[in-house]
């Protein structure tokens, strides 16, 4: 049997055992481009780019082709297929590659970048460069970040459905350890407020002091789950950006500006709803972002909790310490853990904590306020956030290259 908590996260209960169930398996059925003789070449070209391990993409499959054909018209795909991930191309370069007039190609790229947000565009008018981001992280977040959940167009709703179908194939299992350590958990509430070993980088309040501009958009994961009938009802307007990133999102009309006080209130509300707050694991003062995630909807967390796949998260600064002399083995900590890192045998009085899954969010502490059998303790060899994006790149490149090679070899 299974129990469902208010977050709609299914917690398997096998008689008296509360904890994670068997991990989901990859259901992906890879295909070849030659398997789609009736699909226009422009779509196949875009799908091939997005399927590349360099893009962390899924292999060519029915779900990817459906996603691409919805995302772009054939005319749009003809232009997009000439874009790369790293080196941007101008509208003139794309027009020449596509053998079409600039006045036809430029409006297409501008619309895709600044109205639909399906590609990236940067730089001044006249020398603007366009890029094709990966499916995730990239296109998925960009398209939905500025949309309101109650006002999604039929196009956006179908986009969410097709992305979810693609994600559920388990293609991310091809990339073990990709971008490992790139994001970190940052608490703002009860978990950290009294801890004597908390560092400034552990406190969102202190991190925000480095920025002057703040903005919030919508959580793409919870909106998508809501579209496919698996929503948890938790707030969605708490996906945040700070500094230059916030200013850019405000100019693009994708986020609304808020004050620092409002931002902290939004993040505290997220924690009160059982969500965990994340940000990039870099002490960068030009721009930052912070997601507020729940274990039932966040695709990065689901990669661990349901697919048992390594993900982007950095090792936590604090981890739970369980006092089994105080423990009543009620199973509440296991029910509230968003990562399904805890297993409790309520009858046999046994308790297991899977440290590899733990993100150090402390929700188990809050679930055990009555018995006080759980406390957070500092990890002795905790590594501080990277001092720059360059250092982050140096650290994450080796595991990313290994994951990319793993995906390339498996195909």
Blueprint (SSEs and pairs):
Elements: E1 2-4, E2 10-14, E3 17-18, H1 41-50, H2 62-71, H3 74-80, E4 89-90, H4 91-98, H5 102-114, E5 120-122, E6 129-131, H6 135-144, H7 154-167, E7 183-185, H8 204-208, E8 214-217, H9 220-227, E9 239-242, H10 243-251, E10 256-258, H11 260-272, E11 276-280, E12 287-293, H12 299-305, E13 318-322, H13 332-336, E14 342-345, E15 350-353, H14 363-367, E16 374-378, H15 389-410
Helix pairs in contact: 1-2, 1-3, 2-7, 4-5, 7-9
Q: Could you explain the architecture of this structure?
A:
With 411 residues, the protein is of the alpha+beta class. The chain folds into two domains: 2-24 and 174-410, no CATH class; 33-169, no CATH class. The protein is built from 15 helices and 16 strands. It has helices spanning 41-50, 62-71, 74-80, 91-98, 102-114, 135-144, 154-167, 204-208, 220-227, 243-251, 260-272, 299-305, 332-336, 363-367, 389-410; strands spanning 2-4, 10-14, 17-18, 89-90, 120-122, 129-131, 183-185, 214-217, 239-242, 256-258, 276-280, 287-293, 318-322, 342-345, 350-353, 374-378. Strands 7-11-12-9-8-10 form a six-stranded antiparallel β-sheet, sandwiched between helices. A five-stranded antiparallel β-sheet has the order 1-2-3-14-15. Strand 14 (342-345) and strand 15 (350-353) form a beta hairpin. Helix 1 (41-50) crosses helix 2, helix 1 crosses helix 3 and helix 7 (154-167) crosses helix 9 (220-227). Residues 1-11 have low confidence and may be disordered.
């Amino acid at each position: 049997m299974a129990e469902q908590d208010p977050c709609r996260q299914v917690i398997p209960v096998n008689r008296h055992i509360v904890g994670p169930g068997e991990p989901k398996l990859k259901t992906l059925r890879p295909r070849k481009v030659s398997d789609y003789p009736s699909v226009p070449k422009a779509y196949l070209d875009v799908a091939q780019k997005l399927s590349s391990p360099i893009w962390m993409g899924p292999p060519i499959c029915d779900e990817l082709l459906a996603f691409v054909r919805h995302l772009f018209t054939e005319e749009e795909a003809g232009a997009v297929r000439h874009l790369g991930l790293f080196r941007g191309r101008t509208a003139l370069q794309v027009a020449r590659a596509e053998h079409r007039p600039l006045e036809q190609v430029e409006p297409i790229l501008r619309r895709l970048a600044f109205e639909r947000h399906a590609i990236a565009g940067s730089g001044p008018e006249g020398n603007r460069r366009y890029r094709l981001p990966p499916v995730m992280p990239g296109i998925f977040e960009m398209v939905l970040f500025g949309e309101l959940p109650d006002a999604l167009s039929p196009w956006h709703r179908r986009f969410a459905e097709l992305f979810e179908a693609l994600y559920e194939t388990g293609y991310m299992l091809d990339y073990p350890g990709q971008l490992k350590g790139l994001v970190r958990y940052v608490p703002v509430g009860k978990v950290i407020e009294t801890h004597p070993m908390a560092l400034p980088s552990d406190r969102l309040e202190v991190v925000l002091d480095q920025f002057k501009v703040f903005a919030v958009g919508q959580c793409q994961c919870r909106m998508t789950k809501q579209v496919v009938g698996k929503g948890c009802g938790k707030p969605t307007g708490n996906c945040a950006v700070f500094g230059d990133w916030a200013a850019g999102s405000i100019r693009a009309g994708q986020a609304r500006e808020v004050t620092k006080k409002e931002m902290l209130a939004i993040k505290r509300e997220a924690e009160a709803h059982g969500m965990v707050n994340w940000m990039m694991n870099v002490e960068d003062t030009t721009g930052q972002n912070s997601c507020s995630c729940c274990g039932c909807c966040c695709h990065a967390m689901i990669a661990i909790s349901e697919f048992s796949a390594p993900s982007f998260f950095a090792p936590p600064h604090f981890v739970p310490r369980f006092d089994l002399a105080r423990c009543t083995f009620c199973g509440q900590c296991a029910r509230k853990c968003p990562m399904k890192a805890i297993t409790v045998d309520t009858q046999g009085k046994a308790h297991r904590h899977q440290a590899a899954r733990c993100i150090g969010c402390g929700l188990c502490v809050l679930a055990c306020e009555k018995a006080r059998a759980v406390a957070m303790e500092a990890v002795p060899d905790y590594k501080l956030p990277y001092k720059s994006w360059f250092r982050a790149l140096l650290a994450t490149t080796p595991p990313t290259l290994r994951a990319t090679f793993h995906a390339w070899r498996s195909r």
